[in-house]
Predict the 3D structure of the following.
Amino acid sequence: MVSRLGMILVVCAPSGAGKSTLIGKLRAEFPDMEFSVSHTTRQPRAGEVAGRDYEFLGREEFAARRDEGYYAEWAEVHGNFYGTPRAPVLEKQSRGVDVIFDVDVQGAAALRRAFDRAVFVFILPPSLAVLAERLAGRGTDAPEAVRKRLENAKTEIARADEFDYLVVNGDLDRAYDAFRAVYVAERLRPARRPGLAEAILGSFSASPR
């Protein structure tokens, strides 16, 4: 049986662009995909579960692991540390498991250096005005925090061309169709099925004449 290498799918977006919703829909349709559980020093939000959404660590513990080279990437975002453990990702990839990442642009740049053949997708809002409405409508941030997120969004969007694919999330269904198409197409790359063509060619010689 020909083995399959798992895909590393890295997804980035400015806060409020709908990244979490799109990732949730993709994982619901493809339940064998696994989420890369990052470590963070921020406090859990309502509904988040330790070990499922994040591993929540103190700053000292995070710093110790960071200094040991435990993380494939790490960054400080909005005053908190976030990091991706390296070993679990490589183990899943070797077993043919697809792993999806939800990181910021700094994390994506580090993951590009850490993992070969990873796929990078950037989710864009249709406009900054729409993004501002979404952030304000969430009701979870003070006005000053919303302004800071919008300023960060401008910086992040300026780096969108570093990614392999761009998906504009104006209409959720259309955005998901595009996001899904990226994932399905990338699964078909020859590099993810090493030896497949050779195995089929080998079956020709074994077939009865």
